[in-house]
Amino acid sequence: MFLTTEKIRQIFLKFFKNKNHQILTGSSLIPHNDNSLLFTNAGMNQFKQYFLGHTVPKIKNIATIQKCIRVGGKHNDLNNVGFTNRHHTFFEMLGNFSFGDYFKKEAITFAWELLTDIKWFNLDKNKIFITVYYTDKETYNFWLNNIGINPKHIIIIYDNNNQLYNSDNFWQIGDTGLCGPSTEIFYDLGEQLTGNIYQNNLGERFIEIWNIVFIQFTKNINGEIISLPIKSVDTGMGLERISSILQKVNSNYKIDIFQKFIQYIAGVLNLNFYEHNSLNVIADHMRSIIYLISSGIIPDNEKRGYILRKLIRRAINHGKLLGYQNNFLYKLVHFYINEITFKEDKKYLKEQYNFIKNIIHNEENNFNLILNKGTILLNNELKKLKNNILDGHTIFYLYDTFGISLDIIKNICQKKNVQIDYQQFKIYLNKQQQRSRENSNFKNKINIYYKKQISKFIGYSTLSTKSIILNIYINGIIVSSVNKGNTAEIILDYTPFYGESGGQKGDIGYLYKNKKNIFQVINTTINGNIIIHTGIVIQGIFYKDDNIIAEIDIIYRNKISKNHTATHLLNYSLRKILGNVIQQKGSLITEKSLRFDFSYLKKITQEQIQNIENIVNHYIFNNYSINIFFEKKNNITLNDNIIYLKNEQYDSTVRIIDIGNFSKELCCGTHVSTTCELGLFKIIKVLNIAHGIKRIHAITHNYAIEYIQKQNNIIKNIVNIFKIDEKNIIEYINKYRTKNNILQQKLKELELYMSKEIMKKILKNNIILNNINIFISGLYTFNPELFNYILKNIISKFNKTIIVLSTQWNKKIFIFIKITKNIININAVNILKKHINHHIIKVIGDSLVAKAIMNINEDEYYIFISKIRTSILNTINSLY
To answer: Which H or E run contains 537?
Structure first.
């Protein structure tokens, strides 16, 4: 019987439900309070706090299906995607977990039964191979004696390069922390394929189905392995991989969901074939793109938005490699959501269909404009080549700045019989990748050791408390103390400091010890259940296990709380004016202002902005109380009209902020007690930050009053300068603008006339030397913007030409040099460097431009131009 991918998912969940596992929903693709990850990349991510021992799980045995994205860091599969049978940027991980309950024997038994029992997947036992870490005798013996695996099918994996615990079969969460041996299950696809299971599963013959990790140790900073008091199991089985085996195909891209999608893509691209690496890439990337946008990520030039933009551009590039030049990605969204997605995803993806499609379409339009510019630049560079080799710097510039794939650059070059300097390109690429790693915002600076340590936040009701220092870190390394003048990160057992989360900035304040020792907290962040106080010792010394007083800056907290409450009022008011179609896409709440991002496809009018402001201020002036209560997440229904982020991961018990019984939101942030504390609300800016994404900047209280006063002062100054009635200011500005436009047009006409007259004088002073036309002219106090007209006209009249135009303008000397391509051995840059030591050289159009700050008088200026003229004439004489 043919098992669809949907059915395989259901069988997996049914099996573990029968084995007394609680079936939980996979977490969001955006990790919750985890700055070590760009995206969720494994099923264990949402349970990290259980494994670390920071939280005691109420349920000990769990099974999930987790959506994962791997595009960076250790798990970077991007370059392999589409070109191997098994790599993806987006995939689903089937996983079962145990926290202190069952261990090796049970985990292995479950896996074997699901894979081989006739009631379940019924795989051929003789085609299954096992890998085991060389010191894990218990696992080896259980596979051999209890399961009955052929000893020839059990492969012992040793450490790589004799580095202790550096092995494919020894899992580690990081340089320090949780670790343990793993056993991997492989399936033999047949002797007709090449492959060697002993060498990191090279080839296509053996496919890794399941990885079972036994988390039984922790590694300390000295590299010592320490046994854990509670042992856990973490397993993962790729849905796409097990589907390929059960559907008897040798590639993930040939399973039902991929084949259906790939055939549709081929139809959209007008292709008569279905098997091609580029089709695989497009199908894979579209899955990532759709789920990332639905998770609130929009294309950007940094962080997660950069990855999304990169995936969209790679997919577009692969469409062009297949010969399709028009937009097409946005056309794939409807089919994927309606025909490919699993039942649990269909509803929420359908709700976001227009938003997802429009984001992709807009990004395609923008990228095609950039590609066109890049392609023109590439063709221009190819025309200039003398040795028929395109240098690596140019390739990298086109690749990095314009997003033109290396394959497209290769194709264009091949058509013109041009080779590319791939090695030099790789040097530039590696340097960029190194910079990206160094500047990554997703570094896990602190590895918390396995101790049942929790920083308990009590700052909702307490602003100052006694506490104990659990740990001190300097540059990510645990230390026993920190002295005056040193920065550090301090972990407390109890803290009133709110850690940055939910868009709200972290608290600042002080840690005191006997009033003689002071640690200034300049930021507070969260890492799982640990709250990190970052700051500097301004007096005394602090030790681990010290008893201290932790006290937040109350004024700072109050300012942030005002803006957080204002954000809730803004969210509610937006829905009243624009409708419930809006979806929050992010926020930033600081002590000075608030920023709110949301999806909305239509234009927002000035009248709507004023209405939104009026509604928020109405709620402020009527002084509604703010009530905070807790509720079980499962008890909340749609009828409660509670606003929450659909893709956010919430605890089983949620905190609800209720303002006046009309605005209700799930929120962990801090708030004021009544709305009148906000004083005043003012929207200062409304932006379109992406297609269908709006951003509102707003301020409250004193900042709002100061802003209005500044705006009023500007109006008063305009009235006083032009001596007009304040009531007529708009009418006067419109008249002034019309008059100014007329004057600007007349000025352009005058400048054009001047340019023509000056060009006539320049042409009269033509020097012909060795059949080269030389025009050298210095113009004191002449606008350099007018030179382009003169350059173009002179070039159009002559063949072999050197033009040097110069002027002193606003205490700067500008020199424009144009040398036609049929003149060799004369370098414009060398000419400039010989006469200008401190200069800025750049290319504008076809001209080389130098700008130098040289405050000289008119006589000195003409002497300077004379030297350049002599230099050029001498150079031509010596060469020709």
So the answer is: strand 530-539
